[in-house]
């Protein structure tokens, strides 16, 4: 083990021993207070009486009573469009240097402000993640290896007074100088906008690098690894990067990808999950004996929790203004919540679109259970993406296959509703058997689904297709790489278009 690596590891251990996790309720109150103080003289802060809220006895309750709940469309329509027009001091002090672009799984497209304070917050959260590596028993020489961060292009779109790009590209473009020696594929390759060309260049340069860890969305990391292996005629990725030990996942649940992912490795990696969204760095896994992530409580983001029930949601999947909304101190374990955030980018009581479950309240640990609009409940199924992922894992074990992608919709057949699934697998299997197995597993996992199957949900169909067809659809209709994710649930109209595309390609 090298001396420098051991010194870095020792520094991380010492830092961890002299710091402690903050008291959750106290840390969150302090974050909210700081947010209100900094934004009180913005247009938003004046409109919603931030100064009065700060003088109240309970700023959390006063904040919840004064400030309405926003989704992206409301936040943009009422406020953020002024930022794109060049106005300042709208929802956060100052002007706007960056907008994060997102194709959006709850909206067609998004322009999300990324302030300098948010970039500082993301960097500090990254440091928290690095410091938590002390819990994973890594050797000293690991801390000298390079980090492959596969995100969107760092070549941002320049406008008159700001730049635009995906959050991973904006973050990579603002990496601290000291980190750039560790960062791969490097700015030159990361600036390539075409996904296929970028991955091909990575495969060409791969023999020159000593990668110790990977970071990125599972499906795109897997595609990159396959290209490196194929181009360099390898058996596994460890043939070229023998010191690869850690994979930091994010954006979607990793478990559905584990089987196909590990087929590319000579040995399993340490898997660390993170929650970096276009709106901020919300949580990171801090210990090895769980797959849950700890909310980052003291770094510019205030969290609220809405019980994910019909009473709290409208027909468009938005949180009602009179919904029951809880602080972290009030929320309970093992309940599905819609997550709201208020941040140093000027998002206020903002519905990020994810549902989460608190798995350990003392540690403030959560799991992402799905998307508010990727919750299948057309005829009473009440299926979450978390339950769908669990069922897919059972199918993988039962049929010894790797399922990397899937999508489902409630569609009408002969005047009645069925659930139709497309499942991306590494090899073909019988569609009817898969549909029966999936149906049985979902009945076991969800009593509401089981009841629906005896009433309004008249059938279940599945088509098992090569996963490459999902990627081709994504490339044509969305885009490859970066933060782009394939939806798990579609509306009937969108699903039928997807089905037509899948059947039209060989």
How would you summarize what this structure contains?
The protein is built from 17 helices and 19 strands. The chain has helices at 3-18, 24-39, 43-47, 50-54, 59-66, 72-84, 116-131, 167-173, 187-190, 195-205, 218-231, 258-262, 385-399, 431-445, 447-453, 467-477, 492-504; strands at residues 98-102, 110-114, 146-149, 157-158, 163-165, 183-184, 211-215, 246-250, 270-277, 280-284, 293-295, 301-307, 326-327, 336-343, 350-360, 365-371, 403-413, 416-425, 457-466. The strands form 3 sheets. The chain has a 12-stranded mixed sheet. A 4-stranded mixed sheet has the order 2-1-5-4. A 3-stranded mixed sheet has the order 17-18-19, with helices on both faces.
Question: What do these coordinates show?
Answer:
The chain is of the alpha/beta class and 506 residues long. The protein has a domain at 385-504: Alpha-Beta Plaits (2-Layer Sandwich), CATH 3.30.70. Helices cover 36% and strands 22% of the residues. The chain is built from 17 helices and 19 strands. The chain has helices at 3-18, 24-39, 43-47, 50-54, 59-66, 72-84, 116-131, 167-173, 187-190, 195-205, 218-231, 258-262, 385-399, 431-445, 447-453, 467-477, 492-504; strands at residues 98-102, 110-114, 146-149, 157-158, 163-165, 183-184, 211-215, 246-250, 270-277, 280-284, 293-295, 301-307, 326-327, 336-343, 350-360, 365-371, 403-413, 416-425, 457-466. It is globular and about 65 Å long. Mean pLDDT is 87; it is low at 1-8.
